[in-house]
Amino acid sequence: MTPEQKRLVRHTWDQVAPMAEAAADMFYRRLFEIDPDTRQLFRATEMVAQRKKLLQTLSFAINGLDDLDGLASKVEDLGRRHAGYGVTDAHYDSVGAALVWTLEQGLGHAWTPAVASAWTEVYAMLSGIMRTAAARAEVAPAKRVALRQVRPM
Ligand code: HEM
Questions:
Q1: How many domains does the chain fold into?
Q2: 119 near 9, Cβ under 8 Å?
Q3: What is the pLDDT of residues 4-26, one digit of tens each?
Q4: Residue 115 contacts by C-beta under 8 Å, 6 or more apart in sequence?
Q5: Using a 6 Å cutoff on CB, does residue 42 contact ligand 1?
Q6: How far is the CA of 10 from the centre of ligand 1 (A)?
Q7: CATH number of the domain that 125 lies in?
Q8: To pair with 140 at 20 to 30 A between CA atoms, which of 20, 64, 83, 84?
Q9: Are the C-beta atoms of residues 32 and 38 closer than 8 Å to each other?
């Protein structure tokens, strides 16, 4: 991400902040509309609390854009937990689409092509770290079994 993209993400996030709760509500409605399968992942979830957690995490990530190394290990942990919630690669694409749609609705005229690509980039970065950590966690136990099998007795 370029410094200008980081600036655009921070600036537009500040614009969304006053309507964050409503935006989070719109986001989940949109997600369940475009990918109804995701609804069952949240079947036992308290959605008011979930909206807060999502917003807090996004704020945390956006504030941490200048210290990506410091951010990475927390985002990796988040990705591993998401694998446990049953989240797949395809779900990440749906969440990205719902997020971009929500920001577009919320920002109106401020949603320019440069803002769109900055947000797409930030989501690709976060979801990329989460997906990679989840995929590594999945192969790790299988690798351990394979290593045990080839080790001489
Ligand atoms: C950048 C992407 C994402 C961020 C920042 C994010 C953030 C969070 C946070 C902060 C929580 C609270 C629990 C925890 O910290 O482990 C959570 C829970 C959850 N997320 Fe995400 N998430 C993302 C992507 C996704 C995707 C792609 C899905 C799939 C539809 C998803 C589904 C869930 C579910 C099912 C829970 C568990 C709710 C529960 O506790 O019952 N998330 N997410």
A1: 1
A2: yes
A3: 999 999 999 999 989 999 999 99
A4: 8, 12, 103, 107
A5: yes
A6: 21
A7: 1.10.490.10
A8: 64
A9: yes
